[in-house]
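Notebook p. 47: complex prediction with pyridoxal-5'-phosphate.
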Amino acid sequence: MSNRRGFLRQVAAGTAGAVALGAPALGAPALGRTRSGAVSIEDLAARARTASPTDEAFWEIVKGQFPLHPDLILMNAANLCPSPYPVQDAVFRLTRDVDQDASFQNRAKFGGLAETSREALARFLGASPNEIAITRNTSESNNTILNGLSLGAGDEVVIWDQNHPTNNISWEVRAERWGFELKRVSTPDRPTTEEELVAVFRGAMSPRTRVIAFSHVSNVTGVALPAKALCTLARAAGVASHVDGAQSFGALDIDLHDMGCDFYTGSAHKWFVGPKEAGVLYVRENRIPELWASDVGVGWQGAIESGGARKFDNLGQRDDAAVAAVATAVEFHEAIGPALIEARIRALSAALKEAVRERIPSVEFHTSDVPERSAGVVVVKIPVDDQRQLFNWLYEEHRIAGGPRGEPYGGVRLCPHIYNTMEQIDRVASAFAAAV
Ligand SMILES: Cc1ncc(COP(=O)(O)O)c(C=O)c1O
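Predicted complex, structure tokens below:
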């Protein structure tokens, strides 16, 4: 009750937004948690062999691998994730190595380390190393695809209205420049079946359609599209499929050859808990020749001779430590297991929906309840007047870090990940109950 009064007071005074702009007063050491809970990757792998998605003792150990403030409930994976200690250590160690000796000779090893990261990503995503480029983020990967395809008057591209701006506004900019047509499709709210989603894209496609571009999991509603069915539909029509995987890379157990897409993109710094400003671009082998590179830097000839998607990560001087640490992030995922990580994320998001609904029966979720139609992104709307204030109040009063969502899918976005616990889910539901 006192919390509820606190929420109303903040809304009335309009202070919550202002407070959130200041430095977080989390009361923990400036550098975050000590690493007393950290275990080796080998130890983690041994424990994971017998762990289940709801084995809280195991997931507490996983949580201990992250340098989180002890009183923070971080549910902002759709936006940015922390890296576990092994990934941080790799970034710090290699950054120091470069800073100690920035000679060509000392940095020569980074070419090999980048290839190790490429191989690791290929293994992790069910692709071949030749099909993988290590970019800086999903935005860059998306833009490489839509800058690199040769499209013009008479062509059509079908996009989902729930795509991220880097996969929608960027298409609009390109369409204006090159004169092709865009068809923007909407899908039913809270979908349940695969067919009701596939039907929307099928209905929009015509003989002029060259590309369909969609988010695997929407950052707007959390709805997961049936990527494999949509890519199959596209392939049968000779249409290229562009899957934005920002909300599935690192969250779902992905096999790109099985999915059958032509292009897939992701950011290492989201669910993948990898280094910051590293990303992935997958280009299916037979599509590589037709896709032009956006950036041509020093080493272009070498990239062409080495072949494959290497021509898409010829981006000038890179943060070599971040690129190399991508391989460590893959090792971290492999230690726990991508299938177990997906199952844990699904268990947490299902528990979150259930716990909030139990306390607030009138709650609305923009995210589907059907497991296949959603993943880790949960967008929830509880009956309060100002969702933005609620988002701020959750952080200021309860140390719950989510994401704000504006209309038409207004509410708060919560993205539980492997560093969250069932006890935290319960605390989130109680905080929501205190706000209504
Ligand atoms: C679906 C989707 N695509 C692209 C992006 C852009 O990601 P980044 O800023 O890491 O490039 C986001 C970010 O939230 C996203 O959700």
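Notes: The chain has two domains: 2-82+338-435, 91-335. The first strand starts at residue 73 and ends at 74.
Next step: compare against the earlier run before touching the bench.
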